[in-house]
Design goal:
Elements (H helix, E strand, L loop, with lengths): L7 E8 L2 H13 L5 E6 L7 H9 L7 E6 L5 H6 L8 E5 L3 H9 L6 H13 L5 H14 L1
Parallel strand pairs: 1-2, 1-3, 3-4
Helix pairs in contact: 1-4, 4-5
Length: about 140
């Protein structure tokens, strides 16, 4: 779906306060953005995640896109968000990391969301590195030279 008139909006939805922590990091790295919503599920027993998600989705117009970042595939937060995934303007990315979120929120909004998300997921996978193993391999390589 090409985004020609609407706005690309984002929702970070997690168990507990992870969403707020990610937003704090985003604000430092990218600058504060007003197109990012947060849901920190289960921290306030008087709030329902279903109501929180509906409140966000209600703020997304038909021409807008909503990219949702949820923490755990198969978790209750993702399962609640998936109720909206059948809408053509709602995209759900589960198991996110900070580099993935940064890449997607900074992506050109003229690039289709599906393309942006697919590329960001591939790039984010490369951010997962067991650094000790990498350093050991480099040390061994230097010793062999």
């Amino acid at each position: 779906m090409e985004n020609t008139e609407g706005t690309r909006k984002f929702l970070i939805a997690t168990h507990g306060r992870l969403a707020g922590g990610v937003k704090s990091s985003l604000d430092i790295i990218t600058g504060a953005m007003d197109s990012i919503f947060l849901i920190e599920a289960y921290v306030d027993e008087n709030r329902s995640i279903e109501d929180d998600i509906k409140a966000v989705v209600d703020q997304v117009g038909d021409n807008d896109e909503l990219i949702v970042f949820s923490d755990i595939m198969g978790g209750s937060v993702t399962n609640q968000v998936l109720q909206y995934a059948s809408q053509s303007n709602v995209h759900v990315v589960s198991g996110f990391n900070l580099p993935l979120v940064i890449e997607i929120v900074l992506a050109d909004t003229d690039t289709p969301a599906q393309e942006v998300i697919a590329e960001a997921i591939e790039n984010a996978k490369q951010q997962m590195v067991y650094v000790n193993q990498l350093l050991a391999a480099q040390t061994q390589e230097e010793d062999n030279d």
